[in-house]
Design goal:
The protein is α+β, with helices and mostly antiparallel strands and about 700 residues long. It contains twelve helices and 35 strands. Strands 2, 3, 4, 5 and 6 form a five-stranded antiparallel beta sheet that branches. Strands 7, 8, 9, 10 and 11 form a five-stranded antiparallel beta sheet that branches.
Length: about 700
């Protein structure tokens, strides 16, 4: 495809290729002196921004809008005289340093045909154009020619070495692609820049940034500033992206960096008056709040961006432009000493992950053991590539390239995986896209899946024309998580309206509360991930409602699980009844197991909080065995719960115990699942 596109652009430009180089001189435009003067003035104006852009590239720093400004002026002169080698060269370089670098290829080609001596850097950028076009051997030759001819470029040697190495690595990578599919997610993309995808933990929502037409503010070069959008995954496709509600989008560039694992917070960076800083916005109901600038320990006097949360919420990773070194953006982290005070410690460099070139977006996996970064350095195939680093004995390992076709000679960054690690979303300006940066879906081909507990596979393997290769070999080493995504919403059992509730996750084996959070005030939604190999108690509480409990037993090795649950909360009214799913007895006995303590203590707390509450504790069994034994066992188990509550100081007059045996089933006894539902302990409010 790349070769076809290159050939097509050359054919379109054919009338100019064989034209003679035309200088911007009066002798060549005797009848158009006024037009010539305007063209020369436009070139002079463009050269001012061009020089600033070149200096930034040489210093590995942000060139901002300089090349866009230069291109805007050069375009005026190009209309007047399209057959000048130097001008074509400059336009080509401007495009190469844009978000759509492929557009620069025909201009560099034309410059070389018109005037091979138009710039001492022509062979360098000709090599870049060939590299983008996938002609790696020819690109290496061009780079080496530049290196031998332009002796003044001693300080430019690191760029030459880097480019030649990229071409050598790309040749090997293309010949041995990774076991993945890459799909352009056309529903999300436009002819402008669509990038910075952040996928929610359950894979149902995608946050992104775009400078598409209709964004709030136009910039000084005629384009639009970036705003933040969201899309939802419904019926196998992504919805048309809508600008986020609330105050999160401003008149400046607003670029999303990452969302928290529970989907309630977002890190982003904004550019204001040439200064880029990191901000945080919080989801309140259905609206994102006004972004708050992170403290000075993160946002210094230089530019900071590309922030992400650590798995425990006590650390933020980001990139910083260090003015004292010509190394571009470097990866740093800052740890928080107190979540309440939001006091961050001085930022520290992540040593193994930094190079002499720019580092980009960062993502930390849910388990905190894997970091995905974008970098122009390391063993890049060209532009930004995506790398993976593993935490080994508390330290990050040397980053490893994720390979082709995830990475290309173009920019590939903003890696955002789904919780199960089977899919990821990236940004890339590779050839064949809609224009500028596009969002792509990566589908990893793994080994045959293990048995799972419960799966809701909400994504398709491929929703467009995937890039396939019959010579695909080894599976790329991606992070394999063993966890369950527990998602859902809390609602009123009668009105069905959302209820804001607090959720408490307990490790039943230890009784330790491992996570507490509050569901969304407008929708009641929540998302959390739980590692396998544990038995969890989940308690849901809201003012004026009975608490709700769920129990999950996730065996070791279970993965790729998605549990979706609508939790119906009941008002504290006479007649309300609730099943205590985290009370456990020894088999066939009425002996309470220690895993029950957390649930029982929550019941104690409810009785203490509502001192007039009068309840009945009831025991229920399935229909296995004789009715007499079941009646006796259910009564004994109800008595055991009441005795526990008495021991905790709850007055006996407020409680009764009743065993119903198998007489009140809530599910069919024809299956093990149904029988398990019927084996339960309940309490019912008899007075309040």
């Amino acid at each position: 495809m790349k070769h076809f596109l290159f050939t097509l652009t050359i054919l379109v430009a054919a009338p100019f290729i064989f034209a003679q180089n035309v200088e911007f001189k009066a002798a060549n435009f005797k009848e158009k002196k006024d037009e010539l003067k305007k063209a020369q003035d436009a070139i002079d104006k463009g050269d001012e921004a061009w020089k600033l852009g070149n200096e930034a590239v040489f210093n590995v720093s942000d060139y901002g809008l300089n090349y866009k400004k230069a291109l805007k002026s050069y375009a005026e002169a190009q209309k007047f005289n399209p057959n000048n080698g130097e001008l074509n060269f400059k336009i080509g370089v401007c495009y190469i340093h844009s978000t759509d670098p492929g557009k620069g290829i025909p201009y560099i080609k034309r410059a070389k045909e018109l005037d091979p001596g138009c710039s001492p850097f022509l062979n360098y950028y000709n090599g870049v154009a060939l590299q983008l076009d996938g002609q790696f051997e020819q690109a290496i030759t061009s780079f080496k020619t530049f290196e031998s001819e332009y002796r003044k470029a001693d300080n430019f040697s690191k760029f030459i070495t880097k480019r030649i190495k990229e071409c050598e690595l790309a040749q090997k990578a293309v010949n041995k692609p990774e076991r993945v599919w890459i799909d352009n997610v056309s529903e999300l993309n436009t002819g402008e820049d669509d990038m910075a995808p952040s996928i929610s933990t359950d894979g149902s929502e995608l946050i992104m940034s775009s400078n598409r037409s209709g964004s709030r503010a136009a910039n000084e070069v005629g384009g639009y500033d970036y705003d933040i959008f969201s899309s939802t995954f419904t019926d196998g496709a992504w919805s048309f992206p809508k600008r986020l509600e609330g105050k999160i989008n401003t008149a400046s560039d607003d670029i999303s960096n990452s969302i928290s694992y529970d989907g309630t917070r977002m890190l982003l960076h904004q550019n204001t008056d040439g200064q880029t800083d990191i901000y945080e916005s919080k989801l309140v109901g259905e609206s994102w709040g006004e972004p708050k600038k992170l403290p000075a320990m993160i946002n210094g006097k230089t530019n900071e961006k590309n922030a992400c949360y650590n798995d425990d919420g006590y650390r933020v990773y980001f990139t910083r432009d260090n003015d004292d070194r010509a190394n571009g953006m470097e990866i740093m982290f800052s740890s928080i000493q107190s979540k309440v005070k939001q006091d961050y410690m001085a930022a520290t460099m992540v040593t193994p992950c930094n190079t002499k070139f720019n580092e980009g977006s960062i993502y930390i996996s849910v388990d905190g053991e894997t970091m995905y970064i974008a970098s122009e350095g390391h063993e890049s195939l060209g532009g930004f590539d995506i790398f993976m680093s593993k935490k080994v004995q508390g330290q990050w390992s040397a980053p490893v390239n994720l390979g082709y076709p995830i990475n290309t000679p173009y920019d590939d960054f903003f890696f955002s995986p789904t919780a199960n690690g089977k899919y990821a979303y990236i940004s890339s300006n590779r050839a064949g896209g809609s224009g500028g940066y596009d969002i792509y879906k990566v589908t990893f081909w793994g080994e045959e899946k293990q048995a799972v507990v419960d799966i809701e596979d909400f994504l398709l393997a491929s929703i467009a024309m995937p890039l396939k290769d019959n010579q695909i070999e080894a599976t790329v080493a991606v992070n394999k998580k063993t966890l369950t995504v527990f998602k859902g919403n809390t609602i009123d059992a009668i009105s069905r309206k959302p209820v804001e509730a607090s959720i408490e996750i307990t490790d039943n084996a230890t009784g330790k509360v491992i996570e507490t959070f509050v569901t969304n005030s407008a929708t009641g939604k929540f998302i959390i991930t739980l590692p396998s190999g544990k038995n969890y108690g989940i308690a849901v509480k809201a003012p004026g409602y009975l608490f709700h409990s769920e129990n999950f037993d996730i065996p070791s090795g279970s993965d790729d699980n998605l549990v979706s649950k609508t939790i119906e909360l009941k008002n504290i009214a006479i007649g309300s009844k609730i099943a205590l799913r985290n009370i456990f007895f020894d088999h066939g006995k009425a002996t309470l197991r220690t895993e029950s303590n957390a649930e029982l203590d929550r019941l104690v707390k409810l009785m203490q909080d509502v001192p007039k509450l009068v309840i009945e504790i009831s025991g229920h069994t399935d229909n296995t065995g004789s009715a007499m034994i079941n009646d006796a066992l259910s009564q004994q188990r109800a008595d055991a719960v009441v005795n526990y509550l008495k021991a905790k100081g709850i007055a006996a007059t407020r409680m009764t115990a009743k065993g119903y045996g198998s007489g009140i089933p809530v599910a069919s006894n024809n299956s093990e699942e149904g029988r398990q539902q019927n084996r339960r302990t309940e309490f019912e409010i008899k007075g309040n």
